[in-house]
Every structure is written in structure tokens, then in C-alpha cells.
Amino acid sequence: MERIGLTFNPSRSGSGANDDDLINVAKLADGLGYDTFFTGESWGRDALTILTAVACHTTNLRVGTGILPVFSRTPTLIAQSIASLDLISKGRATLGLGTSGKIVIEEWHGLPYKRPLERTREYIEIIRQALSGGAVNHQGTFFNLSRFRLGVAPVQERIPIYLASLGPKNLEMTGQLADGWLPIWMHYQKLPELTEPIATAASKAGRDISQITVAPQTMCYTTDDPQELAEVEGQVRAHMAYYIGGMGSYYYDLFCRSGFQAEASAVKEAWAARDREKAARAVSDEMLEGIAILGDAATCRSRLERLRKSGADMPVVAFPHGAPLEGVKRTLEALAPAKISAGTG
Fold first, then answer.
1. How confident is the model at residue 331 (pLDDT cuts 50, 70, 90)?
2. Distance between CA atoms of 131 and 133, rounded to whole angstroms?
């Protein structure tokens, strides 16, 4: 059966979801055969609390941070936290790490956003060392640690570490060190191009790309109602515009590299002028069609398969901000791995 994940956090969904809804979504995904339940964190609930609740109400579904920023916690605390989650989930934890962005780290966390690539590499080194059970004596660029030893042993011998990376050097590090790759806003035609440097770096490090799970997070929503589809498309355009125009240059550069420089520049200009509606309208139909998976069930399953053929090992289903809970469940049911494998319509 082909792997598929999902990402959901009730405090970020905009659907008014509560704790019961969170558990119902997780149980539904567990029963449908989804691989991993990822959740991120920004200004709402933290990821680890959400995942603990999910782990306590599911049986087979893996639980993954998607992502924890490497600036907001020390590496030893992350090692403690993910080991604890692995114990609570009986060996189902995945650690997703990323750098977040300059605006988030400096303005929300009050920390200098410096040398994120080197910092991530050092975090992975320390976390791996701590999770191995040995003493951590580390002299590095950011941390000098002595005599730390993790007081609990995780269930998994090796907890998978996924990286959210898009820049060339980050992709190289992913190939060298990571067990998985968590890109977002990925056009299906660009996925092979960005996977290539990961494969090259992995080969140079004595690894193979097959050891790294390619798991692009993709906005998905299934509906047969044309009016509902139009509303969802508007939500996705607005969300995409927020990332391009409101999250610094990182995602703007990504969209430019993906062949959408004119559109991205128009979004950025409108966003700077505080015209959010104009910014959303600047997101083209081509961007929407190639990056998101929206439409009736057959269309969505077809486009999910298109993403797999482009190199996605485990697509991660995300939901438009504001998507109603019934739409979330309908989408999970439509894209469940058993249905995809059977090719049902």
C-alpha cells in the first residue's frame, strides 16, 4: 500500500475545530491507513502537545512534528521531547525539524536568526547523540555541552528525522543527514529537479535516495460543489499569497525558482501595499493547478498520483485555512491509500 500522510492542527485550521474534532480526524486517518499525522506550530498550540493527544487515541498512525523550529528549543530538550513522544506512542514518533524564517524567529521568539544551516546541522548531531543513549560532550559553534545523558530510552532504535528544506545547501544537508524531506508549496513538475541534489548529496555520503522519504506537504480538498470549490480555491490563493508576500523572501524566492516570478512579484507588490485581495488574485490558475490538489474525488486522486510519479514517496495532505471539518473528513476518505491503490473513482 502506498504511503500518505496528513497535517492538521485545530488551532491553525480556521475551521473552529476543537479537541474532539482533532481526535476524530486522527482516528479517521488511523482507520483509513494514513501513515503519519504531522502537525506544526506557529502562534497556536505547540506541536508536541497535539501529537501526544493523537498518540493516545490511535494505534498505527505515526506522529510527526512538522515542524519544530531549531531556534525555539535547545537540542537536548528536543531530544527529551521526541524520546518522550516515542515512548507515549509506543514507537511511532517522527521528528520534523526546520529553520522557520527570520520574521518568526526574530519578531515572535526574540532570537537572532543567524546561520540557520549550520545550526540545523549541529542540532541533528546533538539530538542523534542524545537519542543514542550515550553521554553528550559536544563542543560546537552554538553549543558547548558536557555530561548530558538522556534519562529515558526511546522505543525506536533510530527515530526518523525529517527536514523542511528548499534552498540548495539545505537540500544538500538533507541528502547527507536526514531520513525524510518535508517541502511545502511544491509544484509537481519541480519536485524531480529539487530531489536531484538530495540524491547527489546522499550518494556522496554513502547513502541512497531510497533511504530518504520525500514527503511534500500539499493543499488538498475534495468537493463536487462548484461554489464550494471556488471558495476553497480563494482560500488557497490567499494562503499562498500570505507565504509569498508576508513571510520574507524565502517563499518568494521558491516561487520564482518554480517559474512564477511575474506572479510572485505581483503578489509581493500587492501585499506590500496591504491589498490582500489583489495579492490573492495575483496567484494564477497555473500555480493553483500545479501546486494544490483541489476538485472532485477523481480529479484529486489523479493529481495525487501525478505527484507520486514526480517523486513523492509520501504526500502529506494539508487542508486550506478555513476548510470545514466535514470537508476535511471527506478529503481524507477520498484520498485514503486503499482507494488510491484500488484506483476507485
1. very high
2. 5
**Domains of the chain as residue ranges with CATH:** 5-219+296-303+310-342 (3.20.20.30), 225-293 (no CATH)
> The pTM is what?
0.95
* Neighbour tally for 322: CB within 10 Å: 17
State the DSSP string of 235-301: HHHHHHHHHHHHSTTHHHHHHHHTT-HHHHHHHHHHHHTT-HHHHHHTS-HHHHHHH-EEESHHHHH
List pLDDT tens digits, range 305-324: 999 999 999 999 999 988 99
C-alpha cell read off for 238: 490567499
Percent helix, strand, coil in the chain, to 5, is 50, 15, 35
Count of beta carbons in the 10 Å neighbourhood of residue 52 = 16
Residues 98 and 70 sit within 8 Å (Cβ to Cβ): yes
Amino acid residing at 229: L
- 108-137 pLDDT tens trace: 999 999 999 999 999 999 999 999 999 999
Q: Grid coordinates representing 140?
A: 560546537
In the predicted structure, residue 342 carries a pLDDT above the cut 90: no
Q: How far apart are CA 84 and CA 64, in angstroms?
A: 13
Looking at residue 45, its amino acid is: R
Within the chain, strands assigned E span 5-7, 36-39, 62-65, 68-69, 93-98, 136-139, 144-148, 161-163, 180-181, 213-214, 217-222, 293-295, 316-318
SS3 65: strand
DSSP 184: B
- Quick check: 84 pLDDT over 60? yes
Tell me the β-bridge partners of 218.
Answer: 317
> What does the pLDDT average to over 205-230?
98
3-state secondary structure of 321: coil
* H, E, C per residue of 295-315: ECHHHHHHHHHHHHHCCCCCC
pLDDT, position 344: 44
What's the CA gap between 120 and 195, in Å, rounded? 19
pLDDT of residue 340: 52
